[in-house]
Amino acid sequence: MDYVLFVLGISGLVFGADFIINQSERIALRFNISEFVIGATLIALGTSLPEMAASVSASIEGKPEIAIAGVVGSNIMNITLVLATIFIVSKRFVSDRDFFAKDSIWAIMPILFFLLMSMDGMISRFDAVLLLILMGAYILFLVDDGEGLERDNSIEDRGDFSWIRSIGLLCVGFVLVVVGAHFTVESASSIALDLGVSEWLIGVMLISFGTSLPELIISVSASLRGKVEMAIGNIIGSNLANTTMVLGVAGLVNELPISLAKHYFDISVMTVATLLLIYITANKLYSKSAGISLLLLLALFVEHSIT
């Protein structure tokens, strides 16, 4: 039965992602909002809901390792799997946005906060509040950045746009993504538990992979349609939301003990992956070779986790 639920969950993710891409694009066109901003806010927050549900549930049930491992693993998957796939499947990577100048600090800052907060062995409620404030600061940055926030009145007069239809289909898409991710994660967790593996491994591998599927499917779909800025915005925004909003809410529910020494390898891979993202954007290495390099880091991570 778990295998059937896993397939159904994947199906929900696929169809939900299609709804989200279509309607987000229509809303972006309606207000002439840049695809990056749509990807970094609306889509990123929506696709982080599975991580939120998994981490908060784990925190409530007194399983902090699953809560933190899910975030660490998801951040790794978003860069080494999702971003790598984008580079490999995109025929042409053309973007007017300077990701390094505008967004690199927002990629590394939450990781540095997480590392500093973890040094005393605990993500406290005070730490959680600081993480949520950081997420708010990022949203304010996007608003102040002002990219594409000017309304395009020529699009407003088009008769094929309906708020009721777009919002309705967007909600359906998010529901399908969240429910699909839930069934994917739950069924994968049940399979893993039957095999007798640790809670951290469940979180950092299976749950993180399951909750990263929305980002993977949406980003790849966007890339295939030439929406590369939306895809990159989704990754940067999702990783920031994972480290700030997801950990923040989970930490407010219950303080989260964490051992940097015990899980140094996985946390190091997350940090290295983030630094590679910054290096790639700094040098504009948007190529299949960069994607393959990221996949090699993912292979190293997987090999270490399962041995």
Quaternary status: single chain
Biggest sheet, in brief? 2 strands, antiparallel
Strand content: under 5%
Total domain modules: 1
Proportion of residues in helical segments: over 70%
Mean of residue pLDDT values = 81
The H-and-E topology, N to C, reads as HHHHHEHHHHHEHH
Characterise this structure:
The protein is an all-alpha fold. The protein has one domain (2-306): A middle domain of Talin 1. The chain has 12 helices and 2 strands, in the order H-H-H-H-H-E-H-H-H-H-H-E-H-H. It has a two-stranded antiparallel sheet. Helix 4 packs parallel to helix 11 (264-283). The longest helix is centred in the middle third of the chain and has 32 residues, at 163-194. The chain is globular.
Give me the secondary-structure topology.
Elements lengths: L1 H30 L3 H13 L1 H12 L3 H26 L9 H20 L3 E2 L1 H21 L7 H4 L6 H32 L4 H26 L3 H26 L2 E2 L6 H20 L4 H19 L1
Antiparallel strand pairs: 1-2
Helix pairs in contact: 1-2, 1-8, 1-9, 2-10, 3-4, 3-8, 3-10, 4-9, 4-10, 4-11, 4-12, 5-6, 5-10, 5-11, 6-10, 8-9, 9-10, 11-12
Q: In a nutshell, what does this entry contain?
A:
This protein is mostly helical. Helix content is 81%, strand content 1%.
